[in-house]
Amino acid sequence: MKLFITSLALAVTLAASPSLAVNPDEVLDDPVLEGRARAISADLRCVVCRGENIDESNAEIAHDLRLLVRERLVEGDSNEDVVAFIVERYGEYVLMKPTLLGANIVLWLAGPILFLLAAVTGGLYLRRRSQSSEQGLGLSDTEQARLDELMKD
Known about the structure:
2 domains
């Protein structure tokens, strides 16, 4: 029974821990180049699996991208050159952290601008509503007299 519980706990722990999809045949012999490849791969998104970098993904395209990264590093490209090459081929979607250039600036600024617009609109609405309620709540003398009459009964 102890063995069963221990193996179950180990299985749950292993299932919960992130496993890398890098295959042994993809690993470079040079540990420095492999470290650079892992650093680059951590910043590249799998185009099939949303939210996973190419090291975590089991998709075929992620496998191809891992090989491409390692291939470019072996050819002598710098980390920036490798990332620029992949972005040129697949677009900025492959970056886990998009840049603040070009059309992306619209996406970065849209949230705060819309929030400010909503806050200003809400403030103006509440201000206008309070002004109209202050003006419209007063009763005329006839209405007040009638209300007093009804309240006596």
